[in-house]
Design brief:
Elements lengths: L19 H9 L3 H22 L3 H18 L12 H24 L14 H9 L2 H9 L2 H12 L4 H8 L3 H19 L1
GO molecular function: DNA binding; sigma factor activity
Protein name: RNA polymerase sigma factor
InterPro entries: RNA_pol_sigma-70-like (IPR039425), RNA_pol_sigma-70_dom (IPR014284), RNA_pol_sigma70_r2 (IPR007627), RNA_pol_sigma70_r4_t2 (IPR013249), RNA_pol_sigma_r2 (IPR013325), RNA_pol_sigma_r3/r4-like (IPR013324), WH-like_DNA-bd_sf (IPR036388)
Length: about 190
């Protein structure tokens, strides 16, 4: 091999890998490339998690757009690891809230106001999401759970979040998330037997 023709790979230093938290901080300073990289890294798994809760691709696309617009605008409010959060948990929290808002908007537009109807009860966003994601027997068992247990189970099982991510998403201590997850699993076992 001829020396000097090819670069000496052994002595080249690689640029350090930038983590998502750093990308959010750079986005807060208006760095468009950092925002694009953050989107490239997080959008695929975020779309999968949203699709687990909503089968309507149009709603998922709208929520994705609203989420990343909120990330661009609110990147400066990201507290980071110092506050016990991760960039992934932060963006999921934004997306989950946007999804709930989308379900509420859909429910409001679907209701036809009439004079004869006295009690108009819209299904909760979680109920709408469950209809498209789980079978009848399991869905019925999930719907019988207390709302606080169902939220934890949905976040951890359907969305694949860790205990820590679920705690951030729901604004609960990790110990409470673990306890509710255990109670929810016991209740589901009893309901399905």
């Amino acid at each position: 091999m001829i020396r000097g023709v090819l670069p000496d790979v052994k002595h080249q230093k690689r640029a350090p890998e930038v983590d998502e938290e750093q990308l959010v901080r750079r986005t807060a300073r208006g760095d468009r490339a950092a925002f694009e990289e953050f989107y490239r890294r997080t959008a695929p798994w975020l779309a999968v998690r949203l699709r687990r809760r909503c089968a309507d691709e149009q709603v998922v696309a709208e929520v994705m757009q609203e989420t990343y617009l909120a990330v661009w605008r609110a990147a400066g409010s990201f507290a980071g690891a110092a506050a016990g959060g991760s960039a992934g948990g932060w963006v999921w929290t934004i997306a989950a809230r946007r999804l709930v808002d989308a379900f509420r908007r859909r429910a409001q537009h679907a209701q036809v106001p009439t004079v004869t109807r006295v009690d108009v009860t819209a299904p909760a966003a979680e109920e709408e999401a469950l209809k498209g994601t789980v079978g009848d027997e399991v869905g019925d068992a999930l719907r019988t759970l207390a709302p606080e247990l169902r939220q934890v189970l949905q976040a951890m099982v359907l969305d694949g979040l860790s205990v820590r991510e679920t705690a951030v998403l729901l604004g609960l201590p990790e110990g409470t998330v673990k306890t509710r997850a255990r109670r929810a699993r016991i209740a589901m076992r009893e309901a399905l037997t």
